[in-house]
Amino acid sequence: MGSTPDFGRRDLIKRSAALGLVAVPSISTLTACASGGDDDGNKVDKGKKSDKNPLAVNESAALDVVIFDGGFGQKYAKDAEAEYAKAYPKTDGKIKHSATQKIQTVLQPRFNGGTPPDLIDNSGAEQMDFGTLVAKNQLTDLTPLLDAPSVDDPSKKVRDTLRPGVVEMGQFDGKPVWILYYAYTVYGVWYSKTNLEKLDAEYPETWDDMLKLCEKAKKKGVAGWTYPGKFPYYMPFSLYPFIAKIGGPETLIAIDNLEPNAWKHPAVKAAFEAYYELYKKGYILKGSPGLTHIESQTAWNQGKALFIPNGSWVENEAKKTTPDNFQMAVSAPSSLDSSDEMPFGTIWASGGEPFIVPKAAKNPEGGMELLRIMLGEKSTKNFVKQVSSLTSLNGGTDGLSLPPGLASAQEALKKAGTNVVNPRLQDWYVALQKQQIGVGALGEMMAGRMTPAEAIKKIQKFADDTAKDDAVKKYKHA
């Protein structure tokens, strides 16, 4: 891992501004950001299109890459850049690689001046707001990349090698693809098989069994759950698929679409009350409301709590404190009861680590070509081995010995089949998801400072206010 631990979490999740960091620019900032425009005069000449160069990359042009300095580190990107230099030898020594945790602070002046990089891993606390970038026409349409032949099999387009839903995630209102999510994240309830075995237990497939196991653990001095109370927008990683499981996928679609009273659906109420019961019965690790993601993961690794809501980046991010015999695993949420609309195994999985090519980039073809290389099997396997995470390439793990958490994530995906949900709230409305729903309501409820009914009422108001705010670009499921 190549970053400060507190910013090592993954992307797809994009750190909040809750502690004073800038997650969403102000309106004036966004206007300034949009002023860069698309100056074709700054662009390098295109190269000659061929079977080996399907995107017509200028084979001697410089390439400027900026990667979020997070839990995945830098090596995977540098290794892909080395492959780029092999494919286009005249670019050797001309590839500029930069890493930062402060994406917006570093890159906004470059957007303002019309000199953005050619490829950006737009993640972290200071992730630039996608809705605004799209609305202000600041991004390159990645359709040429998706329609280009894959590195491994020229008979297949890149789009045909990707996992289900990845292409759609990069779209807004069904329009061109602006974002390519490189990692593929499995969200859910993470646990240690070893620690469950100590209690002679397996993962509880029903909520009643979950409560019974938490009670059993409590008698042994172990908490049932912990979570990063300073970043409570982790709770949805297991809570949102729980809501979908209870009420059906249309419940999350209505929430994403900012429909009136979407948060007042009975499935939301049932899910919130179930989680609140964990607090009421004392099944949450004391002090959790004050923990960061790293601190909560460390407590979990130390066996102080059985379960934690998280994403599949956790295996790499927490590896320094994970015991050798931990047997990390992930499961879909437990069933509430037999009336649930979706089966046990329903899980949230989606693209993570969002890459963009600015419209004003000097070498957009080079940026897309580097992504094409990254989506090849060689780069994918390199990524998997380095950081214990899947990529958006459908496959890429053949012949690899997967660590326990990643193997479990693969198994969870297989078990889910078509019962995979992908809430878009965190992509479309970053401030609503993180600062308002997460910090302003879920964190308060899980700390016992707000009842489920109060949390739902507050969240519904947040959603309604966002829906009425003309300054916020709105998106809907197709």
From TrEMBL:
Asked if the Swiss-Prot or TrEMBL record annotates the protein with the keyword Transport, the reply is yes
Ranges of Basic and acidic residues compositional bias? 40-52
Q: Where is this chain's protein located in or outside the cell?
A: Cell envelope
What are the coiled-coil residue ranges?
none
Segments spanning the bilayer are none
PROSITE patterns listed in its UniProt record: TAT
Region annotated Disordered sits at: 34-53
Key word Transport present: yes
Concerning Pfam families, the annotation shows: SBP_bac_8 (PF13416)
Alphabetized, the UniProt keywords read: Signal, Transport
- Top-level taxon in the UniProt lineage: Bacteria
Principal localization reads other
The UniProt entry's sequence similarity note says:
Belongs to the bacterial solute-binding protein 1 family.
Name of the molecule in the record: N-acetylglucosamine/diacetylchitobiose ABC transporter substrate-binding protein
The species is Streptomyces milbemycinicus
Q: Which gene carries the instructions for this protein?
A: ngcE
